[in-house]
Design goal:
Elements (H helix, E strand, L loop, with lengths): L9 H7 L18 E8 L3 H12 L4 E4 L15 E2 L7 H8 L1 H24 L12 E5 L2 H18 L4 E4 L1 H8 L6 E5 L3 E2 L2 H14 L4 E2 L6 E4 L5 E5 L2 E10 L12 H4 L3 E10 L4 H6 L6 E4 L5 E6 L2 E7 L8 H14 L8 E11 L6 E6 L2 E5 L5 H16 L10 E3 L10 H17 L3
Helix pairs in contact: 2-7, 2-11, 3-4, 4-11
Bound molecules: flavin-adenine dinucleotide (FAD).
Flavin-adenine dinucleotide binds next to helix 2, strand 12, strand 16 and helix 11.
Length: 439
């Protein structure tokens, strides 16, 4: 299985503009011999690298293996939105599991943002361009607005968190430049980054500290040796480890060795487009506070401004990777929200897989006494995977980790996993219908 290059995204183009002298230190060559480590990590995205970081901090010898270049998966392709939320709302969590669990989940969500900040500080990742500008959720109907306002009110009263504030119709219209929203809720503890710079920066920092990262190294077999150790086989060599952390998320089906982790998830294709640079006039009208923006529709779209361009993304359940249909639909959705962009060209189009789970929460746990997994961030993995990978490292070392509803004992494959693709299409079509009729 040949290693694949990063997709041709805006992130890759921006990274290529940096003078070679200033680019992050290049990381791993492929594994070309047999090695022994305490902990082997499969996957060099945010999850795997944050696990390696936590292990290195504790002086535990580890190695990271990836079939592709660092950040080739979702970590190098995402929207770069750093958010302090789960897909499941805190009132819903409290309703089902009680207020104490909701408080612990709320803490984890904000700890995720702190984890991103800590990486940026510790590895001096200035090229990541972190901006703690908040995230504005824009309501597309009055009903949706009352629902998100009620949630903000609940978070303030029950969790003592005043970082969510209601924004009027006029405020949302002025700051986004879009006309279709009736109001919104601003979450202050959120921000934006350049995602590929972030993952590469962490990898470079780890390399400097002596953590080996082997790229172009697919794990093609995972077995137990007679001494209880795990034996990972890659084309160029084998890794013998006491513990393994599987951090392959929505790309776990790259080889059979990790495919059982794929059955935990419903992978959902998520697509992004980036316009040509805006004129100064448009730049002064759109997204003036440089936050990230989401909307309340079920088939949610999100947008932000970066590199003087509009970046617009959404879940695209219909097209296959690289097919133009999904991107064209995204561009139509963008122009519907921002008619000002009608004549602005789209210069970049790319997509990747988001790992969705049935309970809308990440899953972290052990699949056996020598294997730990963390996956299923449901589209909020920039902050969450930066944190959860570190908890996975603690679990692999036999520690207890405070994971509230994220802890999972063993793998629980999604029922009827083979039918996931038509299932996703059905649900998406239903959601699009509900959005279209304003339900
Ligand atoms: C288009 C898009 C937009 C998104 N936008 C946002 C956003 O704005 N904010 C947010 O918080 N989240 C967002 N997400 C989600 C976020 O990117 C992910 O949750 C996060 O990157 C997951 O990181 P990870 O390290 O777990 O997995 P990944 O980054 O996907 O890494 C998995 C790695 O495992 C490797 N691998 C798989 N199998 C093997 C094997 N057998 N052997 C060796 N290597 C293997 C792959 O090559 C890959 O590099 C988005 C995702 C996508 C796709």
């Amino acid at each position: 299985m040949a290693s694949r290059p990063q997709p041709e995204s805006l992130w890759r183009a921006m990274a290529a503009r940096v003078p070679v002298m200033d680019a992050p230190v290049s990381t791993g060559a492929p594994l070309a011999r047999d090695i022994d480590v305490e902990v082997a990590i499969i996957g060099a995205g945010y999850s795997g690298l944050s696990a390696a970081y936590a292990l290195q901090k504790r002086g535990v010898e580890c190695a990271v293996l990836d079939a592709n270049p660092v950040g080739w998966g979702a970590s190098g392709r995402n929207g770069g939105v750093v958010s302090s939320k789960f897909r499941l709302s805190f009132p819903a969590i409290a309703g089902a599991h009680g207020i104490d669990v909701a408080k612990r989940m709320h803490r984890l969500a904000h700890d995720g943002v702190r984890a991103v900040e800590a990486f940026i500080d510790e590895f001096k990742l200035t090229r990541v361009q972190f901006e703690h500008t908040g995230s504005l959720r824009c309501a597309h109907t009055e009903r949706a607005l009352s629902s998100i306002c009620a949630e903000a009110d609940w978070v303030r009263t029950m969790l003592g968190d005043a970082s969510m504030t209601v924004q009027s119709h006029a405020q949302v219209q002025h700051e986004t430049g879009a006309k279709g929203f009736v109001g919104g809720v601003l979450s202050a503890d959120a921000g934006t980054i350049l995602p590929l710079e972030y993952v590469r920066g962490i990898a470079a920092g780890l390399t400097t500290r002596g953590v080996p990262i082997y790229e172009a190294t697919p794990v093609i077999d995972m077995a137990r040796a007679q001494d209880g150790r795990v034996l990972l086989r890659a084309p160029g060599g084998a890794v013998r480890a006491k513990q393994v952390i599987v951090a392959t998320n929505a790309y776990s089906n790259l080889t059979d060795a990790t495919a059982s982790y794929h059955r935990e998830l419903v992978p959902f294709r998520s697509a992004m487009i980036a316009t040509a640079p805006l004129s100064p006039e448009l730049d002064s009208q759109l997204m003036v506070h440089r936050r990230s923006y989401t909307e309340t529709r079920r088939m949610m779209k999100w947008f932000r401004k970066v590199d003087g361009r509009v970046l617009f993304g959404g879940r695209d359940a219909f097209g296959k990777e690289g097919e133009p249909t999904g991107f064209d639909a995204l561009q139509r959705a963008m122009v519907a929200l921002f008619p000002q962009l009608k004549d602005v060209a789209v210069e970049y189009r790319w997509s990747g897989y988001v790992g969705m789970t049935f309970n809308a929460l990440p899953h972290v746990g052990r699949s056996d006494d020598a294997t730990t997994f963390c996956l299923g961030y449901n589209g909020t993995g920039v902050a969450m995977a930066s944190l959860i990978g570190q908890h996975a490292a603690a679990l692999a070392l036999g520690d207890k980790a405070e994971l509230a509803m994220l802890a999972q004992d063993g793998l629980r494959p999604v029922p009827f996993h083979a039918l996931r693709a038509p299932g996703v299409r059905l649900v998406a079509a239903w959601y699009q219908f509900l959005d279209a009729v304003g339900a």
